[in-house]
Amino acid sequence: MGNRSNSLKGDFRSDTVTQPTEGMLQAMASTQVGDDVYGDDPAVNELQEKFATLVGKEMSVLFPSGTQSNLAAILTHCGRGSDLLVGNKYHTYVFEAGGASVLGGISFTPLPTEEDGSISNESITSHVKPDDPHFPETRLLCLENTVSGNALPVDVLRKNAETARKYGLGIHLDGARLFNAAIELNVNPTEIANIADTVSVCLSKGLGAPVGTLLAGPSRLERSIRRNRKILGGGMRQSGYLAAAGIYALDNHIDRLAEDHNRARLLANSLVDLAEESGIRISQNTNMVFFEPHPDDHQPLLDHLHSDGFLVTGKKPAFRFVTHLGVNDRDVEMFAHSIKNFYKRK
After folding, report:
1. CA-CA distance, 175 to 92, in Å (whole number)?
2. How far, in Å, are 1, 18, 267, 332 from residue 4 at the CA level?
3. Taking the CB of residue 190, how many other CB atoms lie within 10 A of it?
4. What is the pLDDT of residue 275?
5. Quick check: pTM over 0.90?
6. 196 lies in which domain range?
7. Cis peptide before 213 (omega within 30 of 0)
8. What is the pLDDT at residue 4?
9. Does one domain contain both 178 and 276?
10. What is the pLDDT of residue 5?
11. Are 292 and 268 in contact (CB under 8 A)?
């Protein structure tokens, strides 16, 4: 695992900050590679087959990033002038630069997101466009799991998909942290993935690989997905080195996600008394803890944590603290102690 600087005590910004473990680095160094654009990189082919089997799909394709894989999926399901439905707090709508509109000529119809991250079936029904030349044709429903760390129950997503399919819509699932959801819900990943036609899962978050997302789906969509990857500049050559990291992650880092969830729970529990005393809102979902201080305390707390050797993002109104394989029990204890010290000194 990568070395920390002497002054850094813990990085709780995101699970994207993980660095390869020694075992992963050894796997990367010893792999055989080819040229994936020609389809002859053995490690990439092994990774794609392994992942497709894990999520119960016929095939999968390796992408450099989750944003690109989601966009390729949307372009595969939709044509120019089409419309997609998506939760108004979902990553594909909020944090992916409107790529479907910018590059695909596809419009977004954002649906109200409930407090738990779900969208209602009634909202799906009421936002499908009528068959009228005045409106774009609704072609796709984009779902997400987890949402802000919250693992949505399979039945909720399944009913969303069933509602959408009544109108002939395709279903894409942004499952960047799908394995976190599966661990939290204690279900096989296929149960979540099977509700959608296509599903993307990130290798470089909790799974700890340095780069990569896999987009899985039926074989009939593979040619279109690969073409869209090429259009978006996602074809990579000797990407087997990255694929080797992905294989190692799938073999070794899925079950250990439960450790991240437990550490997030430990952190939240450590701060419960402080939250009650100081009127702080705190919640924990999978590997994320949301900590909402009084607005006047937000910047001073951020400055305190940084000066004390902890990296966090300054999101408002609530901080998001994320546990991952680069964080251990001692890190969590020291981090909670630092937060408590801030309030003691006020």
Report:
1. 11
2. 9, 11, 21, 16
3. 13
4. 86
5. yes
6. 22-252
7. no
8. 56
9. no
10. 58
11. no
Domain end, chosen from 236, 252, 268, is at 252
Same domain membership, residue 56 and residue 114: yes
Q: How many structural domains are present in the chain?
A: 2
With the C-alpha atoms ordered 112, 114, 119, 124, is the resulting torsion angle positive or negative? Answer: negative
Quick one: 147 and 288 in the same domain? no
Among 75, 87, 327, 69, residue whose Cα is nearest residue 202? 69
Contacts for 298-301: CB closer than 8 Å, 24+ residues apart? 300/342, 301/339, 301/342
Distance CA 209, CA 265 (A): 24
pLDDT number for residue 163: 98
**Helices 257-270 & 178-185, crossing angle to 10 degrees?**
70
- Where the chain has pLDDT below 50, the residues are 1
Whether 191 and 79 map to the same domain: the answer is: yes
Q: What is the pLDDT of residue 277?
A: 87
Closest C-alpha among 131, 95, 90 to residue 109: 90
Is the separation of the CB atoms in 167 and 128 below 8 Å?
A: yes
**Strands (DSSP E) found in the chain:** 10-11, 59-63, 82-87, 107-111, 137-144, 170-174, 198-202, 213-217, 281-285, 288-292, 310-311, 319-322
Place of tokens 């279900």: 187
d(CA 318, CA 279): 13
In Å, what is the CA distance from 117 to each residue of 142, 143, 152?
Answer: 13, 10, 7
- Distance between CA atoms of 296 and 330, rounded to whole angstroms? 29
In this structure, the answer to whether residues 34 and 143 fall within a common structural domain is: yes
Nearest CA among 151, 150, 204, 146 for reference residue 326: 204
Query: What is the three-class DSSP state of 57?
Result: coil
Q: Which amino acid is present at 282? A: I
Question: How many CA atoms are closer than 13 Å to the CA of 335, on its beta-carbon side?
Answer: 29
**Omega of the bond leading into 317 within 30 degrees of 0 (cis):** yes
Q: Are residues 310 and 218 in the same domain?
A: no
Residue 187 sits in the same domain as residue 160: yes
Rounded-to-integer distance, Cα 290 and Cα 148, Å:
9
Let me know whether 58 and 27 are in one domain: yes
Q: Rounded to an integer, what distance in angstroms lies between the CA atom of residue 191 and that of residue 181?
A: 11
